[in-house]
Amino acid sequence: MLEAVMVNYSELEDELGDVLEKAMKYSGMTEECLARESGVSISKIKDAEDYRYDLTPGELRNLANVLKLNEVGLSALSGGRYPLPDFKGLPFELHTLAMPFSVGRVNAFLIAARGSPTGIMFDTGNGYGELMDAWPSSIREIAAIFLTHWDADHAGGLGELLKHNPDIPVYAPPGSSSGVALLSGGDSIRIQGFWIQAIDTRGHSERHISYHVRRESAADSGGVLVAGDLIFAGSVACGFHSPRELLSNVRRILVEMDGETVVAPGHGPLTTIENERRYNVFNY
Ligand SMILES: [Fe+2]
């Protein structure tokens, strides 16, 4: 059983106003239409989108029903909080490199065997300087770089990182750079004693890959899902390419993956598959 710890808005990528706005956009519903269907006044809906919350439990329930959202997660967000699990120990090191970005943060990750100075890098942040500021002192070399997608906040540090380390192999979905090994969903790579499986998770962008990372010696454990711009603690990414594909990929992953899998999202805090099954606002 997971023990939840509550975090407040400052740590999350999305708060209530953000998820309501995304949910309306993804369902093609206007504020007028939502007000009519839910019985919540349009001024209260607009206030909520502007981060002023005055919604009763009954109104939150109605909004959740009409927008097909998870009522428990929505109610938690309305109180300015969201439950996150206490993480069980992973059989390897997972370093989060959190960098300031816009009003929140963007994450890159380094995964390494316990005590090893050699890490496998996932995404490269919004710039080389920001990446170096967040770099963990125990990691002194990189075995490979994997990109989830080519947006500047996830691949921005790549060029300069390669100037300093020209021989590092880079794996990514098709995008903007030459000299990169292109991956598709279903591809699997073994490196430094890890299995890294590419999962096609398009939706935020047309070409987007999430990575399921497991230690070879513990291949039956949940491991880590490096999720990029797919799922966030409590919410989902913007479906710039296709909200429908984004949501169906999120729901498929929440159904199919082991609940103990740690989710390492491109923005906001770590979570787990089981936690998001229970509370993610978009898991209806
Ligand atoms: Fe992003």
In short:
The protein has 284 residues and is of the alpha/beta class. It has helices at residues 16-27, 31-38, 42-49, 57-67, 71-78, 128-133, 152-155, 158-164, 243-256, 273-279; strands at residues 4-8, 81-85, 93-101, 104-112, 118-122, 141-146, 170-172, 181-182, 188-191, 194-200, 209-215, 224-228, 231-232, 235-236, 262-265, 271-272. A hairpin with a 5-residue loop joins strand 4 and strand 5.
Description:
This protein is elongated. The strands form four sheets. Strands 3-4-5-6-7-8 form a six-stranded mixed sheet. Helices cover 30% and strands 27% of the residues. The longest helix has 14 residues, at 243-256. The model has no long low-confidence stretch (mean pLDDT 93). The protein is of the alpha/beta class. Helix 4 (57-67) crosses helix 5. The chain has two domains: 4-84, 434 Repressor (Amino-terminal Domain), CATH 1.10.260; 87-279, 4-Layer Sandwich (Metallo-beta-lactamase, Chain A). The protein has helices at 16-27, 31-38, 42-49, 57-67, 71-78, 128-133, 152-155, 158-164, 243-256, 273-279; strands at residues 4-8, 81-85, 93-101, 104-112, 118-122, 141-146, 170-172, 181-182, 188-191, 194-200, 209-215, 224-228, 231-232, 235-236, 262-265, 271-272. Fe (ii) ion binds next to helix 7.
The spatial strand order of the largest sheet comes to 3-4-5-6-7-8
Could you say how many structural domains there are in total? 2
Low-confidence stretches: none
What is the strand content?
25-35%
- If you consult CATH, what is the topology of the largest domain? Metallo-beta-lactamase, Chain A
Shape: elongated
Could you spell the SSE succession in H and E letters? EHHHHHEEEEHEHHEEEEEEEEHEEH
List ligands, each type once.
Answer: fe (ii) ion
The CATH level-2 architecture of the largest domain is identified as 4-Layer Sandwich
Mean pLDDT: 93
Give the helix tally: 10
Structural class: alpha/beta
| Strands, total number | 16
CATH class of the largest domain, anyone? Alpha Beta
Main beta sheet strand tally, sense and closure = 6 strands, mixed
Distance between the termini: 21 Å
- Taking all Cα atoms into account, the compactness measure Rg is 19 Å
Can you say what the CATH homologous superfamily of the largest domain is? Ribonuclease Z/Hydroxyacylglutathione hydrolase-like
